[in-house]
Specification:
Layout (H helix, E strand, L loop, with lengths): L2 H19 L23 E6 L8 E7 L2 E7 L12 H4 L15 E4 L2 E4 L2 H14 L4 E5 L5 H14 L5 E3 L6 H11 L9 H5 L2 E5 L3 H4 L1 H12 L5 E6 L4 H5 L2 E4 L4 H15 L5 H7 E5 L10 E3 L1 H8 L4 H8 L3 H11 L6 E5 L1 H4 L4 H15 L8 E4 L6 H9 L4 E2 L3 E2 L3 H11 L14 H9 L10 E5 L3 H4 L3 H4 L10 E6 L11 E4 L8 E4 L4 E5 L12 H15 L28 H4 L4 H10 L12 H6 L3 E2 L3 E2 L5 E2 L31 E4 L16 E6 L15 H6 L5 E3 L1 H6 L7 E5 L4 E8 L9 E5 L27 E7 L8
Parallel strand pairs: 6-7, 6-17, 8-9, 8-13, 9-10, 11-25, 13-14, 17-18, 18-19, 26-30, 27-29
Antiparallel strand pairs: 1-2, 2-3, 4-5, 4-19, 11-12, 15-16, 20-21, 21-22, 23-24, 26-31, 28-29, 28-31
Helix pairs in contact: 3-22, 4-17, 4-22, 4-24, 5-16, 10-13, 10-14, 10-16, 13-14
Bound molecules: iron/sulfur cluster.
């Protein structure tokens, strides 16, 4: 570090320390958080943070001047992105400064939103919960920071004895979770992004990383520019930018992935080309033949597995999937080669699927059967769409059935351990899982008299009014239900705030302290750098303030066994700090207190985390993180592999130490192919698939307010095949109406656009709140994960002149 930078950091640290004394809220700058080579100047300070958007978890350097984010740079010290960002990441600072930030709490009175004080807002929420704690539901997301999700989890399950808490991640990666659990007995990928640097073959299963995880995809394409050979095989239902970079494109029918994976396994066995030694030592076979199938399934013999898979010949798979038989043989031949490394990548395409758990398990099975597992570059890997879908939802367990650290509410010993860590009275945690997302909204939008037993819902950091499937039924039906009360904390007005009864202005990203966990088990930390606008406040503070109001009202659940507030934070002298008062919230680092409490939960499933201060120093650490003899903390890149994972028994090459069969083995599953829940027919002859685009992040709430991103992709559209358009006399750019059995949506047509669907398929991105394609999508969901299928339903395209008027 040069002398100028040292002087700057010292000055900045002193200034920040001085401002703490004066009661301001910015933390002392950590000298090792800024990298060399960034511009310096009077008053310009740099600090690290993970990007606010996708689950890749790139690190950025954030430049702050005069209390405002003025610059963003890729963080060269970050292993994930090595200084690179995608177009969203370079503009992430702009998301703070949209003109219409919410800055005051707003209560709907006589149909009109009226400004109220925070005291009134917190009191209103607490009173509704106090009056009817069991009919309250908390809906969050994979954008909750780890401490925010942990606070919400403890508030609901430990404090209110209410398990009606679920995240929007149910809509994007729940099937990945159930796939990992069914196969390994524990969630999350075994490998890491290094697999992308070392694979010889990359297979993308219904996945478009060139647009959705561009920095990760560039790790692969960069290798080609250095002269390395990497074969990319894109299996999808439409051509995308990933296809443009692929050596092979295998176009499948919807649900074809299930048949393809079965076909590969059939050939591996038929040709005696599977990894017999790996399977004998490390795997069992499983089927789901029980009347009520479970994630553990039933053991079946290898012979039984052979018999069941026998019918999935390449020719039969071609019929089911549309992929030519010789391409199925090509895939099986690749998996049969043991001297190459194969990585599979997937995201929503395999997860938003009524056979989501099955297809996740089957792709794991292909890798296990072929032995393409556990060596760098040999990995079945799911990616997440949100920055902390892993860190918060999967690890903290903010799902209706889960408790932190891989525990579940249905197991008495897990409830007992959680009650112990929380020091709440025995029996506080209910053994009955709460409502998953689709059910939660069904119960909220159904009249109370008709059995709709959720009456108050608190939504934080997500936008269900745009993302839920079949919006007319699951969201819009809330209108006119007088006794239903929707509370929404957000940063901008959204499709969800449009129906809210109470709107709370939230702080976002570097306006607050935070921690995220990315797709490769990497836990990341950042400090608050700027103040939020107006009266916007931290989501975590909101939860604590509501809890404290209930404590004051005498709610017994808000007291621990010693009669103290469940979120009590004490100073070094043992005095309680009133963190429920916002002007005292940053008197201490609440994130650190919550994280250190949460850390106790993480050892049971070997998801061990390091102390908070280790994350302050690092650009994230991949769990399990284990303390070494010299006091340092070591992360783990490859779980279950003896060469890297400290929990594998000495001398073992692999050990699946959370095996659901309790014998250290993973499960290779057989699932029978099933057709999609709704198929095109005479009335609705097209497949409708939905998804995302490079420029916008999910519902576009943030990115559509960044002019560079908004100009680059101003509107949603429907991608159509030229011949389908010609047959219907539809022209490029013409506005058409998409109709399904559930709703309608008007969109301009894009023929031969960025994505190119085959005949009979249309594709619509969901980022545009002025064109809500989720009016049309289907709420049918996977039986295990309860994740809905957004990738396929029946629809028709109607020229505007003959279409119904949208309602
Ligand atoms: S959006 Fe994703 S890929 Fe792009 S910079 Fe952010 S974390 Fe990286």
């Amino acid at each position: 570090m040069n002398n100028d930078r040292r002087a700057l950091l010292k000055t900045a640290a002193m200034a920040a320390a001085g401002s703490m004394v004066a009661g301001a809220t910015l933390p002392v700058l950590q000298a090792d958080q800024a990298v060399d080579g960034l511009p310096t100047g009077e008053g310009l300070e740099w600090n690290k943070a993970p990007c606010r958007f996708c689950g890749t978890g790139c690190h950025v350097q954030v430049g702050v001047e005069n209390g405002r984010v003025v610059a963003v740079a890729g963080d060269k010290a970050a292993d994930v992105n090595k200084g690179l960002l995608c177009v969203k990441g370079y503009h992430v600072g702009g998301i703070l400064y949209g003109k219409d930030r919410l800055t005051r709490p707003l209560l709907r009175k006589d149909g009109k939103l009226t400004e109220i004080s925070w005291d009134e807002a917190i009191e209103t929420i607490a009173q509704r919960i106090f009056d009817s704690p069991d009919t309250f539901a908390f809906y969050g997301s994979g954008q909750w920071t780890i401490p925010e999700g942990y606070a919400a989890q403890k508030f609901m399950k430990g404090g209110l004895s209410n398990n009606h808490i679920d995240p929007n991640a149910r809509l994007c990666m729940a099937s990945a979770v159930t796939g990992f659990l069914a196969t390994y007995g524990v969630d999350e990928p075994a490998g890491c992004y290094q697999d992308l640097d070392e694979c010889d073959v990359l297979i993308t299963w219904g996945n478009n990383p060139a647009e959705m995880h561009p920095v990760l995809f560039s790790r692969v394409t960069d290798r080609r520019s250095r002269g390395e050979q990497v074969r990319i095989i894109d299996i999808g239902t439409r051509r995308t930018r990933t296809t443009d970079a692929a050596n092979d494109y295998l176009e499948m029918k919807p649900h074809g992935d299930v048949a393809i994976s079965l076909g590969i396994m059939h050939l591996l066995i038929e040709n005696d080309n599977y990894d017999q030694s790996f399977v004998e030592k490390h795997c069992n076979f499983r089927g789901d033949e029980a009347d009520t199938p479970t994630l553990q399934g039933e053991p079946i013999s290898e012979e039984e597995f052979r018999q069941r898979i026998a019918k999935y010949t390449p020719e039969h798979v071609e019929e089911l999937s549309g992929v030519p038989a010789d391409k199925i043989r090509m895939l099986a031949d690749l998996f049969g080669q043991h001297d190459i490394r194969i990585t599979s990548l997937w995201c929503m395409g395999m997860n938003q699927h009524t056979m989501g758990t099955a297809i996740n398990s089957l792709v794991h099975g292909v890798h296990l059967l072929s032995g393409h597992f556990g060596r760098p570059g040999d990995a079945p890997t799911s990616l997440t769409g949100q920055p902390s879908a892993c860190g918060t939802v999967r690890e903290v367990g903010t799902l209706a059935h889960a408790l932190p650290g891989g525990r579940v509410v249905t197991k008495p010993e897990h409830r007992e351990q959680s009650e112990g860590f929380w020091n709440v009275r025995e029996g506080s945690i209910s053994e009955v899982p709460g409502y998953h997302t689709v059910k939660m909204f069904e119960q909220f939008t159904k009249p109370t008299a008709a059995g709709g037993d959720i009456t108050t819902m608190f939504v934080q950091v997500t936008n269900p009014g745009q993302t839920l499937p079949n919006l007319n039924t699951l969201f819009n039906d809330k209108q006119g239900l007088e006794d239903k009360f929707l509370i929404v904390s957000d940063v901008y007005p959204t499709a969800t705030t449009a129906l809210a009864d109470l709107i709370l202005p939230a702080a976002m990203w570097v306006e607050k302290n935070g921690m995220f966990g990315n797709s490769e088990r990497r836990t990341q930390q950042w400090f608050k750098m700027v103040d939020p606008p107006g009266e916007a406040r931290d989501d975590c503070w909101m939860t604590i303030a509501i809890a404290h109001k209930l404590f004051e009202m005498g709610h017994e659940g808000m007291k621990d066994k010693d009669g103290e507030f469940i979120f009590a934070v004490k100073d070094d002298a043992g005095q309680e700090i009133p963190v429920w008062e916002f002007d005292r919230y940053y008197d201490t680092n609440v994130d650190k207190h919550l994280f250190e409490e949460y850390r106790q939960f993480t050892t049971m499933k070997h998801k061990n985390l390091a102390p908070y201060e280790e994350y302050v120093k690092a650009r994230g650490l991949r769990w399990p993180v284990v303390e070494q003899e010299d006091g340092s903390w070591r992360e783990t890149k490859f779980r279950f592999s003896g060469f890297d994972d400290p929990f594998v028994k000495a001398g073992e090459e692999f050990e699946f130490y959370h095996s659901s069969s309790s014998d250290g083995r993973a499960q290779i599953w057989f699932h029978e192919y099933q057709p999609p829940p709704e198929m095109p027919d005479e009335e609705y002859p097209m497949w409708l698939c939905t998804g995302r685009v490079l420029e916008h992040w999910h519902t576009g709430t943030m990115t559509r307010r960044v002019s560079q991103l908004s100009r680059a992709m101003p509107t949603a559209y429907v991608e159509m095949h030229l011949e389908d358009a010609q047959a219907a006399n539809i022209r490029q750019g013409e506005i058409v109406t998409i109709e399904s059995r559930r709703g309608v949506c008007d969109l301009p047509v894009w023929i031969d656009g960025r994505g190119r669907p085959p005949r009979g398929t249309i594709f619509v991105p969901f980022f545009d709140e002025t064109k809500l394609i989720n009016n049309c999508t289907l709420e049918a969901y996977d039986p295990f994960s309860k994740q809905p299928d957004y990738k396929k339903c029946a629809a028709r395209v109607v020229k505007k002149t003959t279409a119904k008027v949208p309602s």
